[in-house]
Amino acid sequence: MFKQPILIASNNLDKTAELIKCFKDFKISAESYQNAITRLHFPNEGTTSYLNNARQKATFIFKKLPTESVLGDDSGMIVAAYPDKFGVQTSRQLSNYPSDADKNHYLINLVNGRSRQVTLRTDLILCVADHRVYHGLGVFEGTFSTAERGNNGYGFDKILIPLGETQTLAEMTDTEKTPYLHRTKAIQNLLEKVAQNEYEHF
């Protein structure tokens, strides 16, 4: 298996909290890397590959804590109406909108009168003590709502409706929404790789 707790290589507190919660659903302990060392400034992310960005974050922390299990992730949004926007650069392209509400209103207005279809993708890289590296991939498929709805969530949860559903993620309970989350799916895929011993060395 691997050493627990998994240390999450991110300075994004909301993302870290969500990953901790998702791992807990699989009975796995996870926490911020900042519980082990002081807060660090990560190298700038690339602009072409989710996988490479996740690997960069994980290995950056793992090299400083080589006896620990370290997880890096990268996520992005693919908007059907604008296939050349967002993607790996989602967070950078939305950086001018300071709050979640600002970002959500921008996206709602952006797709007004166009396809509301949206995909979210997460790549996870887990580095463990003998230099094995595992990769997990998770994808959310759904649509944008026409307005923010619900209070149980953060980020885009108030405007994302899973395929086949009518409620946004933020209108669902944790139990209802967890199976739809791209990070949950990525963790499930990652743990399948661990169970099947599918890894590479670095």
TrEMBL record:
One Pfam family here: Ham1p_like
Cellular component GO terms held in the UniProt record: cytosol
Leader sequence segment: none
A biological-process GO annotation: nucleoside triphosphate catabolic process
Keywords: Hydrolase
GO molecular function, one term: nucleoside triphosphate diphosphatase activity
Similarity comment text for this entry: Belongs to the HAM1 NTPase family.
Protein name stated in the entry: Nucleoside-triphosphatase
InterPro entries given in the database record: ITPase-like_fam, RdgB/HAM1
